[in-house]
Amino acid sequence: MDIRTFQSADEVAQEAANFIADRIRENIAKKDFFTMAISGGRTPWEMIKELAKQDLPWEKVFLFQVDERIAPDGHPDRNLTQLFKSIENTKLPTRLNIFPMHVVAEDLDEACQEYAETIKRVTETGKLDLVHLGIGTDGHTASLIPGDEVLAVQDRDVALTSNPYQGRYRMTLTYPLINQAEKILWIITGEEKAEMLSRLLQQDPTIPAGSIGQEQTTILTEESAAVAFN
């Protein structure tokens, strides 16, 4: 595991953008396209803004969602809504290759299956080049929530939570898909995340984040969150 610590969340966002840009260039040089799944969060949206400043072949970049709340299109609770806001007034092309989770579908189980099939079709191998993750103060990551039945899903790459979390049911990538990604990038900022970062590093099985693979992992964090291992 590669752990890099910075003085502020802004620096983390900038370094995350640089890290992703490097992975994009490497993969496009190797196979002519790049696939990535993005999580939500304040620092990640700043990361996207910084990434948008990079001179990259965006037509060869394919963006997926790590998770999404079951809410109407355009709702502020939606990660997709915040993603679109983060790229407003940037130099990104108007037609990005973004694949939203279809959380307004009548049959959400079918929508999960279709999303998994889309990932397999676009990636060609079923493996994403990069999955970006964050961690909650309860140890959740993606929408893999403590105590939820979705934690036990091993036969599907995309699934629904069994209970509402913070008022919303969720659609999420599951452990099997996340753990086979070529690279996993954690962005962890804020003093309130220090305990969970420590438990993540220990691969604590009692928190959802502890079951994410670590061999292909890079963690970018700020000093206030890294006190546990400084």
TrEMBL record:
Record Pfam families: Glucosamine_iso
Superkingdom of the source species: Bacteria
Example GO molecular function: 6-phosphogluconolactonase activity
KW Hydrolase (keyword) present: yes
Reaction catalyzed: 6-phospho-D-glucono-1,5-lactone + H2O = 6-phospho-D-gluconate + H(+)
Keywords: Hydrolase
EC number: 3.1.1.31
Glucosamine/galactosamine-6-phosphate isomerase domain sequence ranges: 8-216
Endoplasmic reticulum found in the keyword field: no
Pathway(s): Carbohydrate degradation; pentose phosphate pathway; D-ribulose 5-phosphate from D-glucose 6-phosphate (oxidative stage): step 2/3
Family to which the UniProt record says this protein belongs: Belongs to the glucosamine/galactosamine-6-phosphate isomerase family. 6-phosphogluconolactonase subfamily.
Chain's role: Hydrolysis of 6-phosphogluconolactone to 6-phosphogluconate.
Entry protein name: 6-phosphogluconolactonase
Organism: Algoriphagus oliviformis
Gene name for this UniProt entry: pgl
